[in-house]
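Problem: given the chain below (609 residues), write out its structure.
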Amino acid sequence: MAASNPTGTAITSARNLGFDPDALREKYRIERDKRLREDGNDQYLEVSGDFSRYIDDPYIEEKIEREPLFDEVEVVVIGGGFGGLLAGARLRDAGVQSIRVIEKGGDFGGTWYWNRYPGAACDIESYVYLPLLEEVGYMPKRKYADGKEILWYSQEIARKYDLYKDACFQTEVTALRWDEPSERWIIETNRGDAMRARFVAMSNGPLNRPKLPGIPGMETYKGHTFHTSRWDYEYTGGSAEGGLIGLQDKRVAIIGTGATAVQCVPHVGASAKQLYVFQRTPSSIDVRADRPTDTEWAESLEPGWHQRRMDNFNVLTSGGVEEEDLVQDGWTEIIRNLLFLVRNEDEPDLSPDALLKKVELADFQKMEQIRARAEALVEDPETAESLKPFYRQFCKRPCFHDDYLPTFNRPNVTLVDTQGRGVERITEKGVVANGKEYEVDCIIFGTGFEVGTAYSRRCGYETYGRDGVSLSEKWQDGMRTLHGMHAHGFPNCFIMGSMGQSGFTANYPHALNEQSKHIAYIVDQCLQGNQHLVEATEEAESEWVDAIVQYARLNEKFLADCTPGYYNNEGKPQDRSMQNANYGLGPVAFYKLLEDWREEGQMRGLKVS
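Solution.
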């Protein structure tokens, strides 16, 4: 169903869009229904027991030996990814000297420490994705920085803000306990630590725990397996740049076609004897058009450019209006198409219902362009048809790549489209899909990370607040927080990046930066006033939960109509408590709310004592 407008030029009215909106709505419904499953998130296996090897650290060259710590610091930050780095940086800016970062990996980097698969790179332009560019004084080498550069830059942030001092690497938190008599948090770890901290910021990351599909027979497979977040270069050879010479005589299966697979499939396809890509749902693959950074442009930027550019991208990807689109990419194209639709109407109807319909038309137009691209780049018509996504663009995370689709033109690469059913089973020799067994030497799981599971499971530890009540107990009927960061009964504890009750944005480091500024402000206010405790009141927490539930209804139908994925709780948005949703008025409004709260200076909703 190719669009009559594959270049993406906006069309002035629905009458000449080149497609039938009603037919597309029905097609989207049929494709969604194919993929609905009763088991939802339960279809995935927890990476534990016999499967715990999938989360071993393959990058550690030497284990750090140290004695257990029983000392005390002002702030403990759990997690050394962008969230932990930003929290540390903003706390340093506020004058906090005693900071300890605890990180499971062997260094800073978080997602970019673990994900070193070939082709790893950011899919949002690096000039808005990488945080603290002006503060660190760095300009990315390309529009889309690769994983190696991002990992180096993460460590550069840590050096800039002296976060290596007192950091504990190769260390996993096993429990977090509030000690009422001393008004301190006790942090227990797998290294025998029982360190104490006045404040704790939990930045465990939303995409940190690999998940495995619960495919029958996985334990029977006799070949080699690994997860993309723990890439096995000893087996594949090569590096993050490719050249996987260890696969030259290997038949390889990749299960999953999300953002990770889109980046690594071209490299595996270029090296393997045979590659089978097992697809349940195709990703939307837009133009990437990566290029080196224009030094003349970089030198022309005025102070404050980075925040302005992040804000501009955030507004546009949230459906807002800006006079200029600074980023000009596939992320922001829908809003450009929408504005063209509105501006080319003689008397535009700007009522909420009319705008929703126009947004849908702009989305249809964008996805027609995406499907036309698959048809143009993939030579085999059947394969091209299978690679066309039939859902709204932001039902799943959009992907941007110039080599993924052409990889299926290689004679050694086969797309196995399961028509939404997924892989049937795994045998001793290979993978069974559509009733056929594909014998392979290696299975690579590109199946992503846990999102919809319990918070404590994703963290890998439990948090115990006042009277020994756990966060899991408190949240057994849904999240209860103030601003997604504070929980009543858990004083001096800040929750970062929880994917709930806060301002979700496509550019995740932007959200972490706003949370970090807010946390640093609160800690600074406590230290300046010699205050020992800060905690959300029950009343403020209840008011925030009510607001989250009220605004969550605004997005309910969109998520219900989407094809299953982690954005909509694997097709079961109604099974996730509405109060676990993000702030329904969007990230722009949420960040403004936090900014106004700080400017008010009353610490409203928090009890400070």
